[in-house]
Amino acid sequence: xxxxxxxxxxxxxxxxxxxxxxAVAAHLGRCSACTADLDGLxxxxxxxxxxxxxxxxxxxxxxxxxxxxxxxxxxSAAAAALAVGLVVSPxxxxxxxxxxxxxxxxxxxxxxxxxxxxxxxxxxx
Length: 125
Hints:
Radius of gyration: 39 Å
Number of strands: 0
Largest sheet: none
Shape: elongated
Structural class: mainly alpha
Strand content: under 5%
Helix content: 40-55%
Order of helices and strands: HHHHH
Number of helices: 5
Distance between the termini: 75 Å
């Protein structure tokens, strides 16, 4: 077995399946470098677990407030007004003169026969 560096933390925490646990334990019996790595991991783990638990200085989750009663009344009134507006005055189809729209939104260019060059501003509006 090569050095099981990636398995040492799981070995230390007892998270390996029995076959992997046995293989790592056998390797640790033969390899002083991996045993030293495991001892270092154990010291770091114990140091971290020994740190005091701190409370956060500000609440990380804002407290949920119930909206005031007037907000529910206002929302209900707005929904009712919208429903009445949709029922009373449904949208009526309007006729649109497409030729008029095309005339307003189409560029017109006049070309003079024989003209090879024009002077003036280049670019659009």
